[in-house]
Amino acid sequence: MRIFNLSFIITVLLYSSTVISQSASNFNKVWVQGGGVSFTTTFNSTGIVNQYLDTLYSPYFADGNSNICDSFGNLLLCSDGYQVYDKNVSVIDGSDTLVPHAIFNRQDGWSPASQSSIFLPMDNGKYYFITPTASDHEINTYWNNPNSGRALFDVMYYNTIDMHANNGAGKVTRRMVPMLQNVTLSKTQMMACKHADGKSWWLLKQASDTNMIYKFLFAQDSMYGPYIQGFPDPHFSKWDQSGQSIFSQDGTKYATTCRGAYKIFVADFDRCTGTLSNPQVYDVPTQKYAPDTTQNDQTQGLAFSPSGRFIYVNGWSNIQQIDLLASNPQSSWVKVADTDTVLNAFEMYSSMYLGPDNRLYISNWNGLGSEMSVINNPDIKGIGCSFCPKCLRFPKFHFTPSVIGGGVDAPPCMPNYRLGPLPGNPCPVGITEVQPEPVVFSIYPNPARSEITIRYSKTGILELADLTGRVVRSILLPQAAGTQYVNLQDLSSGIYIYRYIVPNRSQNVGKLVLVH
């Protein structure tokens, strides 16, 4: 039997690709941000222009926000994480409520989770819009239960948008197509990177707590995946209200962190195959969270410098820099900033993004601020990077009793739209006939009382689901082969369905009986 693997998909993409057009350089020319009152930031060659987008009951473009421009740099689409709007902040056809209703209602119609939406452009006016989120079951069973100790994302959808429809007004042509279901996902930590062909997109999404990464490949007419890759460390915190994943500007490195982790994960990235390699975990030095002299600051977000040499990591009240080219990067940490104003006016930091002008812009976690802080020279080591407190200034809105206040908040979640194809043809060419090695897998004892032993031959994930199909346990099997012991005492007696999932292979499915 002929099996077409991922290299064949990549070959087709490369064969049909052309040199990326100059228009891609304009996709991120305008940023949309702000809660209650929304603003646009336009990056012109002569400087930055900040102005109002919507001042009366604006959607909340805060944390979960994203947007994209057309080939001329004009604002085209923007999102609050749950709906898609046009340049006039009107909901486009078919984009009302692109997430399950329970989370939409609970969060008042906008997403407070960073990196919970993203736009990926294709040819001929087509766009993908991706939203990881929580199902109605997750919200009603766990989020709405104050004693559950759980508030995760468990589903992920993509939508397709045709901007040629409705005489150029746009339309969602496919709604809420499932990418992942019945899984446990971080509420943050999602980012995309151009494939080596310069046209298609890799999308990486972190699982919850464990360092397991779901990878997808978006092409003009198809989505491929998920492809799963896992690493033993770090185990990210479940306190993932803030977090960020990012690629270096050239797409060769990937980094991620989330609140409470106190660590960053960095790996090399292959734009041809989507493979992460050379994993590194760095401990972020603990800093005191002002004004508390005992509590450690939290890791909130991170960003690469333009060259990819430095990574900046911000907590609530501190910003630190690590040098990846140092002989010992762990010892190279430098604190480059603390609070950007007096303490009683400080709004705390959240995510940060590199602008088209190669400056870093740091968002605020809360408050009604009309400024953002900036790092002017992020490729300079140490405090020479030039942290400028509250140097990006927005118009001040004059509130009235009938208008609810708002603030600048967070830059939009955007990949590097300007990244082009790799020179030459570095990806494999031709149709590969694959004769896969057999996958060895076993669970015993079965029936089991409180503990099972898992033997396996390939990196993958084991999912246990009850008879309704709800996943009750997701277990990362990180090494290429090994044995793992798992305690299941917290699960009720009964029959469970297990799935051993290995990327690009058929699933091993069976029944597991628990008898306590």
TrEMBL record:
Q: Where is the signal peptide?
A: 1-21
Establish whether keyword Signal is in the entry.
yes
Read off the Pfam families from this record.
Por_Secre_tail (PF18962)
Question: Can you give the residue ranges of the Secretion system C-terminal sorting domain?
Answer: 443-504
Domain of life where this protein originates: Bacteria
Asked if Signal is a keyword of the record, the answer is yes
Keywords from the UniProt entry:
Signal
This protein's name? T9SS C-terminal target domain-containing protein
Q: What is the lineage of its organism?
A: Bacteria, Pseudomonadati, Bacteroidota, Chitinophagia, Chitinophagales
